[in-house]
Amino acid sequence: MLLSKVFIAAIFLWLSGSLTLLCPGGPACRALAQSSHPAAPACPKVSDGVGLSANLPPAPETLPGPIHGAGTGASAAPALTEPASSPANLLPSPSTTTTTTSSSSSTPGGDSLFESSGGKTQPGGLLSVRINVPHNTHPVDVFTAYPYPVKPPRLAAPPSYLPVDRPSLKGLLLSSGYSARISTDKAYPTGGWRWQYAYNSALKKSKLGLPHTILTMYQWIDAIMPCVAAECRRSNEIEDARWARYQKAVDEFEQKFADIENEAVRKGLYPVEMPCRARGFSQAQVPPGSYWLTCTRKVPGLTYYWREPVEVAPGAVVNLMLTESNALEILGGW
Length: 334
Fold this sequence. Notes:
Layout: H1 2-22, H2 27-36, E1 46-47, E2 50-51, H3 87-90, H4 94-104, E3 125-131, E4 140-146, H5 166-179, H6 192-206, H7 217-266, E5 272-274, E6 276-278, E7 281-286, E8 289-299, E9 302-312, E10 317-322, E11 329-332
Parallel strand pairs: 3-10
Antiparallel strand pairs: 1-2, 3-7, 4-5, 4-8, 6-7, 8-9, 9-11
Helix pairs in contact: 5-7, 6-7
């Protein structure tokens, strides 16, 4: 009797397992299994005809999108959408930062040395300077192009006038024409170089030769006196104009130096030291702009100083000649 009951139970269990395999997840299978075996777990759900293992952990609720392949009874997780403007999107990209840094590291004022406001590179100008004076013995020349006016060397008073009265001229003519004739190589001639220029110019214009004896000396002085006096007056007028230019240069420095210097720095212009290519000649490439060319020549007995304004255009060639007539100062045995 007991054996029969065991056999019937085994058959029932076998039939229950067969029904579960034939209709997995169906209502009849679940009802039969629960009525026969209340402790048996419910059949797993099926997705796309494939049975899911009961050991799998539940799907996370924060999947970035719906669960693909879910059945009819499964609820899809809401898709995560990216915010319209995240904090990362508000930061500049690395290329933008590099561009900004490179553009902000330009010369003072935002303009580079050879660039215009439009960002296009401008070619510099070629500045050539030559000194043409009669004194060239062991010269020492210094050339500098400043983008602002510089203060000239201080002069306490204008140069003294050449004499135009007869007694003073008679003494100078007697010395220069007979007793103290000099060569042009002497550093400090009698009466200074201005007197020597006036004397030689009057001698050339009058077409009078030099006296050879003291007997003809005074007649020669009377003949050449008017020409010498005229040349001395002309030399004094030249020095008056030079002194006026000097005072104008000093006033320009005192009144406009700060403003012009600030504007030059804003444009990225700085002093350019021009090398001496040969005796009395200098040439250099400079950025476009306004400059004050300063030059100093020192020779035995004389010191020349020039300060000439010059405008340099892009790609232009500017030639400047420095002479005794346009020198701002001439010091020493002048």
